[in-house]
Amino acid sequence: MVESKDGVANKYQPQTFNFSIDMHSQGGSKCFDDDGRPKRNGTMWTASAHIITAVIGSGVLSLAWAIAQLGWIAGPAVMVLFSLITYYTSVLLSDCYRTGDPLTGKRNYTYMDAIHSNFGGNGFKVKMCGLVQYVNLFGVAIGYTIAASISMMAIERSNCFHKSGGKDPCHMNSNMYMISFGIVQIIFSQIPGFDQLWWLSIVAAVMSFTYSSIGLGLGIGKVIENKKVGGSLTGITIGTVTQIDKVWRTMQALGDIAFAYSYSVILIEIQDTVKSPPSESKTMRKATFISVAVTTIFYMLCGCFGYASFGDSSPGNLLTGFGFYNPFWLLDIANAAIVIHLIGSYQVYCQPLFAFVEKYVASRFPNSVFVNKEIEIPLPGYQPYKLNLLRLVWRTIFVVVSTVISMLLPFFNDIGGLLGALGFWPLTVYFPVEMYIIQKKIPKWSSKWMCLQILNIACLLITIGAAAGSIAGIVIDLQTYKPFKTNY
Description:
With about 500 residues, the chain is mostly helical. It has one domain: Orthogonal Bundle (Hydantoin permease). It is built from 14 helices and four strands. It has helices at about 45-55, 65-95, 110-120, 125-165, 175-190, 200-225, 245-260, 265-270, 280-310, 330-365, 370, 390-410, 410-440, 445-480, and strands at about 100, 105, 375, 385-390. Helix 2 (about 65-95) packs parallel to helix 13 (about 410-440) and helix 13 (about 410-440) runs antiparallel to helix 14 (about 445-480). It is globular. It is found in: Cell membrane; Endomembrane system.
């Protein structure tokens, strides 16, 4: 058993994002990496799969609406721009996995570890990064709960429309669906780490491609049916919406696209599953390129064909906004795939937050039975399940709180845009850029330093605008919304 520097045994340290399966030698003993942890066996392909699972999420469903606000010129251009920025800053961040030598330097197991290694002397930056990261992860849990409930409602509503022939408006409340999703998450959250849940990433990746492909196919079919391509060069026109609404919607669209590309917050955790040699950063460069390229192609196809199908009236959620009514059974499959995918993605994004709290509490109370004791529960045909009381209580409270907040603010597009805005600049751009400058010792006022700072400032302005647009959208929605009572 390896002791950490604070004296707490590693058996009590949460093993965040250990997707890899332990390797055993012929003698039955484990192989270990240079840090004393079980041998990592992740590859470029497994890392790509985890990134795609994290990235191709519910955000893809709002892209048709986002392009509708921006138009045929700015919409695809902004999407390509965000993909390039995400790829470039992810490469910078992957170089910060090890401090010092890229092959033998000290490993940083989490995003916060990387921040602490590079900004160790600046406690304010470390705390700010932690605050932004964990608030963002909490927000993702809320956003995914909302998205899952909308998809569950869409299944029932599509069947209702089908039975009534479109005569019944099929109004319903989302609360029960959010509670159901929360109950499922309470159960899954009790699984200690992803080394025991590797199958969830595979299932989630398959589901994401399933509903994205269905959305794309329905969009292509709608364009063929209409015999024309909808939309305009500049997006939704003044008159359809007011001039100020056009401005707010444009800004919110930027946040939605940023949300769709957001995964930097868990990149280091994914990189910690990759074997070496070659260096983990080289593997992650390739994995990032593959995953961002695949994601962008999917996003462009789904967003553009969705906009081509519905033009200015593109729904906020392509598969639940009832732009499509038939075939209703195919919509049911797509929405069921969304729900299954979001169950997995919720766990992927919440693991760093779960691990952070549990590691902190374990370091503060190293002798606490409540914090550290594991109760073995026998499972027929399987290894005993090790129940930890802290994990049971803390993770259950987390899911309950995020579910209640979701019931209070069930605005998918607005919440998605706000999350994208809040997380994009600090987590995807600012901290990776600043850590890279420190890591590579780039001279201040050099041409490369100036270019990186220009990228920083430009993305900050985008973030401010996107956050303002999303907040305006939430304020407008709250004017007609009654907590726990509004039907859809």
